[in-house]
Design brief:
CATH topology of one domain: Tetracycline Repressor, domain 2
Number of helices: 9
Strand content: under 5%
CATH class of one domain: Mainly Alpha
Structural class: mainly alpha
Helix content: over 70%
Shape: elongated
Largest sheet: none
Order of helices and strands: HHHHHHHHH
CATH architecture of one domain: Orthogonal Bundle
């Protein structure tokens, strides 16, 4: 049986990651899924509802991935590298990070979506800060730098590399940036 809601979320995510929130309409989404616009409204009465559902689904996928990284990867630099590989999928698909694509639109976004995106990034920063603090405590991450500042540096570096390598279509260059980032976290 067809799961129309899931198809809508999948196609809408691709559209937002490729074009931005303002860059697609329900008509675009209806064409991508092969349904009428009225059917979309049945699942998501407004575009804000769709955007909020997209961010929630994306955040849930990332939360599961972060939990797996924490469980399966033993040290701070390895965890940051595994985190960076999550971004690599976007580079390989020619797509940006959903929440970064939304954040770029800033004040043009509805307040609800701005709050949801801020919460997404706050969760990632908190996770990275904890990973980096633990890495400093166990000696796998260089000491001296504030873990909160390092967490912001990691996200900024990865988001910037994703944006640039999406333009240049270069997963290899993204991998190189990730390697430099991770090497810079290791003790000297």
């Amino acid at each position: 049986m067809r799961d129309t809601r899931a198809e809508l979320l999948m196609q809408a995510e691709t559209l937002v990651r490729g074009r931005g929130y303002a860059g697609f309409s329900y008509a675009d989404l209806a064409a991508a899924v092969g349904i009428r616009k009225a059917s979309i409204h049945h699942h998501f009465p407004t575009k804000i509802d769709l955007g909020a559902a997209l961010v929630a689904a994306y955040a849930a996928r990332y939360a599961a991935a972060l939990e797996a990284i924490r469980r399966d990867v033993p040290d701070g630099p390895g965890r940051v590298e595994a985190y960076g590989r999550l971004y690599l999928g976007g580079v390989e698909q020619g797509l940006g990070c959903l929440c970064a694509a939304l954040a770029i639109e800033g004040e043009a976004l509805p307040e609800r979506l701005r709050r949801d995106i801020a919460a997404f990034f706050a969760d990632h920063l908190a996770w990275l800060e904890a990973i980096l603090r633990e890495g400093q405590a166990d000696g796998s991450v260089r000491g001296g730098a504030d873990p909160a500042a390092l967490a912001r540096y990691v996200v900024a570096t990865l988001e910037g590399a994703l944006l640039m390598e999406r333009l240049f279509a270069s997963p290899a260059a993204f991998r190189g940036t990730l390697a430099v980032l991770v090497d810079g976290l290791r003790p000297q």
